[in-house]
Design goal:
This protein has helices at 2-17, 41-46, 63-70, 78-85, 87-96, 118-127, 147-152, 170-173, 176-179, 196-207, 218-232, 243-249, 253-275, 338-346, and strands at residues 30-36, 98-100, 109-110, 161-165, 183-184, 236-241, 284-289, 313-314, 316-319, 327-328, 334-335. It is of the alpha/beta class and 374 residues long. It is globular. The protein binds zinc ion (ZN).
Length: 374
Amino acid sequence: MKRLVFLVLALCLTLALQPAARPAAPVAGNVLVVTLDGVRWQELFGGAQPELVDEKIGGVADLDNTRARFVRPTTTSKDEARRAAMPFFWTTIATKGQVFGDPDHNSAARLTNGLWFSYPGYNEMLAGHADPRIDSNDKIANPNVTVLEWLNGRPAFKGRVAAFASWELLPYILNVERSHLPANGEGAPIADPRSETDRLLNDFAADIPPYWGATRFDATTMAGALDCLKRDRPRVLYVMLGETDEWGHERRYDLYLDAMWRSDRFVRRLWETAQSMPEYTGRTALIVATDHGRGADAKDWTDHGRKVPAAEPIWMAVMGPDTEPLGVRASTPATLSQIAATIAAIVGEDFTSSSKEVAPPLPGVVGSIKSSSK
Ligand SMILES: [Zn+2]
């Protein structure tokens, strides 16, 4: 027994004295990607903007309630206001990972598609480059190969890529006819219900009103994605949430903020669920981003698109075992097109090899752990 204790102690000492080597290849075998449609950098970095918490400008129904939940005194740091809107993002992702797009840190992140609405944005993000052919939100199969389709074509990822959306355009953006990716954007969130819980979730989703038509409430999408993570254990899971954009268009700043908060809660649940599963613990990265911004003044904060250039700046964040905890990145401009190659790099693949047009991964996100810092 004594001999065993000695051996264990000796082993621990040996390990402790060895310098931590820089990982040769990424540690993360899996990646979760969540987008919040049309969330402005103003709220992401600064929380609720008090001038929009207004009956007229923001269509806020209950001023006292909205102020109590989201508005913080301007005398305190903007940290408190943004933490009220997205607590998991600012207490966990921003401290353990990296955040791109803060203009206050000389780090504006932007779109390169010049159109500032959704299909061009999601194409840019998933194909790794803007494409002038994608100039509407029409149901047209994407001519570009997205990083999800490309990964699904690699032996190690075959059948291990899944995507869920609140927007019915997802199957077109991923060109499911060609890619054969499971892309759930409308209807029952669980395509092949196997348990009583699966059937209950599908029934419940069918009972939620189809308020916007093309976009369903995020609760359905969230339920489907969480079920997929637990049941099918994909290596790459993409979840496109949509309510933030819809409430913005409806000039309901209170519900836009509430949708941000619920999206943040979903990201936490997705992350914590993954961390509780052996396949994912310590081997999973998380990317959170948006597809476009919105207008910047009292009139057009609700809007985005060709006539709203203020919608070009965006934001994005990455957290995972290979990503150094640098927090809000300074003097590091970035573009949405860099997400595609970042998704691949996180799982050890080089998407830039697929086409000269593909933008490089976000700088300093993968393999950036310094040997002396840990
Ligand atoms: Zn929109």
